[in-house]
Amino acid sequence: MKVLVIGSGAREHAIVRALQTDPEVAAVDAAPGNPGIAEVATCHGLDGGVADSDAVVQLARQLGPDLVVIGPEVPLVAGVADALRDAGFAVFGPSAQAAQLEGSKAFAKEVMAAADVPTARCYVCSESGQVAAALEATGAPYVVKDDGLAAGKGVVVTDSVDEAMDHAQGCFAAGGSVVVEEFLSGPEVSLFCITDGFTVVPLAPAQDFKRVGDGDEGPNTGGMGAYSPLPWAPDGLVDEVVSRVAQPTIDEMRRRGTPFAGVLYVGLALTPAGPRVIEFNARFGDPETQVVLARLRNPLGVLLHAAAVGALDQQPPLVWREEAAVTVVVASEGYPGTPRTGDVLGGLPEGDDTAYVLHAGTARDDAGALVSSGGRVLSCVGIGPDLAAARAAAYRIVDGISLADSHHRTDIARTAAGD
């Protein structure tokens, strides 16, 4: 099987790495990829970017892949999966209409209501008077979300009415609307569910760290680290989420005539009243993918191809490594605001099966040196017999990385590991 992976982040590097271990996968191409992916796969430029359907289809026609895997949300919402399917390719990733589960939080809430999925009470607002009324109705802490895509940074959770209103005004100024929700208390869990539009196959749950600073301080980011498994998660959690959330949502999307095939990312809060959905995403999450795929024993290419062609019900049960995995993100100066780029990177290890680096915001400069090119630069993955060992392995890599004025969280998985 030949596979083409669309994207350029650490998530895509993790996907490529996992595909390379599948004996059924003979070759992996990536577009545009990154310097880390280029070490293990053939990378191809996309002058128009990952959302340029014509360019992606043209590349696919040149390469002739048996499967195309779309990593990021932007090309999915832009309809790249539709264009590839229309051209006759097997695609892992939902249609543009189905990807509105991530592209519009208001739409996702509408689907959840129709499918009787437990989630937060919400108000969709298009002007400041509606926001003020919604904030009064929900009370603090206030949760205000950009209705559209925001690269994981479109949510503000605050006790300040002024901060909540300012965020809403920023969304309005950009031409969007906002969703104001009641705050959901309790630990958060990410669960990826592979689906072909009928069958739902859950992966192992993970926990993501969204805030930029230790102790969950500072603004939201795209994610500063993650770990799996979750030793504190209640028994039966995955089965409950599939039966109460994922399967009803997939069934509702099919009933609407917009079947969802790909990965449904379910972001949950484990509230005192039970699991409640915080958000849906229409693709693998970053950085959770880095730890979940590190633990998956099943051949990834075979699994994703089965989802793409409607044959998930014929797949064997998933098998997971007993080891734990932790990833820590090394970020550029300025992230999650305007990141500084162009700084030289050093100290990257050779890597092995227990500790390795996945590239995110990296590039080669004119002299061929590895430099930073984005906010989240590297994802350092450690694997060990338990979370404490995996955490230690990840941080050994982080400590060896040299990137001027970079920053990272020091508390990823600390509480769960008992450190």
From TrEMBL:
Catalytic activity reads: 5-phospho-beta-D-ribosylamine + glycine + ATP = N(1)-(5-phospho-beta-D-ribosyl)glycinamide + ADP + phosphate + H(+)
For this protein, the record's PROSITE patterns field holds: ATP_GRASP, GARS
Q: List the EC numbers from the record.
A: 6.3.4.13
An annotated Gene Ontology molecular function: phosphoribosylamine-glycine ligase activity
Record flagged with keyword Ligase: yes
Q: Which family does it belong to?
A: Belongs to the GARS family.
What's this protein's name?
Phosphoribosylamine--glycine ligase
Tell me the organism. Flexivirga caeni
The organism that produces this protein has a lineage beginning with:
Bacteria, Bacillati, Actinomycetota, Actinomycetes, Micrococcales
